[in-house]
Amino acid sequence: MRKLIGFWAIAVVALMGCVEFERQTIVYRHDVERDELRMLMIYEGIHGKSTGDFSELRSVLLRPRTFFFTNWILEYDRDDWVRELEHIDRDRDAKPAAYKVAYRRLIKLMLHNVRVDNGAFYLNSEGKLSGYQQVTFSRVSELVSAVNQMVNVALIHGELRSEDVLLASSRSADVIRSAAYTSHQWVRVDEGELRLRVPLSNHDYEAFQREVQDDATWQRVIEAGLREVYIGGVAEFVFGEYGHSQTTISMDVFDGRYIPNMLPFVEEDGLLEPSPDFETIIQRFVERQLAW
Fold first, then answer.
1. Are 81 and 232 in contact (CB under 8 A)?
2. I need a labelling partner for 265 at 20 to 30 A (CA). Which of 129, 135, 201, 222 fits?
């Protein structure tokens, strides 16, 4: 499970944080004609490990930053991408030129084609601090191509090891490297389907199945709608249905006790708003008219 999360982190950005939320709902819509992927992100039961975490909380909805399930495991933070691009441009170490070119291409596409529109903090039906955002990915086909190129180049040049991919062992190393040399599509967005495609030996796929069969987090992901198949030596993990432009994914992501320790700071800063009418928000989201 940890390696699957780690692999996704390579495709996006991985950072751990101290602020947590109990539940996240993502409504995403793939607009094929516009080559655009829009996501309405709803976080419920937001709280911190300590009251000192409020500065991180404020950054979530007050600057271009968003998170994808499992308590901040996957994060898009525009400021981090800017710093990373500056680092690459200054970097004079021995990293392969092809790796730098692919990484720079990915970062520039992310900076120019990912937009985070922040909503507001509010109290959900249980009186718990919650919030929402919209994330828009433009030129999706180019972004996906850049992600795939980045993973392949990183594998070819040793910046990403085959054993870091999912539960790959030495049995899958040759399969994974061969896939990289043949421009494997690790991520695909097809008419509403989001796919992660990982070449694996049958042995390693069976090992993965054994590891996750009793994993509570993985079971919640499956219940949220993830499908998995193993065909032709490739494990595929799929959200959404082909031909369905809109999909809703909702999942509990925290098992601990909710503590309302962030609410006083949100109220003090005047950031708390009345509970929104999500039926109206979702309708405006569908019609591409959402703005706040």
1. no
2. 135
Q: What is the Cβ-side half-sphere exposure of residue 12, based on CA atoms within 13 angstroms?
A: 21
pTM of the model: 0.82
Specify the pairing of strand 193-199 against strand 187-190: antiparallel
Burial call 166-187: b when 16+ CB within 10 Å, e when fewer: bbbeeebbebbeebbeeebbbb
CB atoms within 10 A of CB 232: 6
Rounded to 5°, angle at Cα 142 from 86 and 118:
65
Using CA atoms, how far apart are residues 23 and 246, in angstroms rounded to an integer? 20
pLDDT tens-digit map of 187-235? 999 999 999 999 999 988 998 889 888 888 888 889 999 999 999 999 9
Helix axis angle, 78-90 to 97-113, nearest 10°: 150
Q: Which helix (H) or strand (E) holds 151?
A: helix 140-156
Name residue, tokens 């991408």: 81
Length of the chain: 292
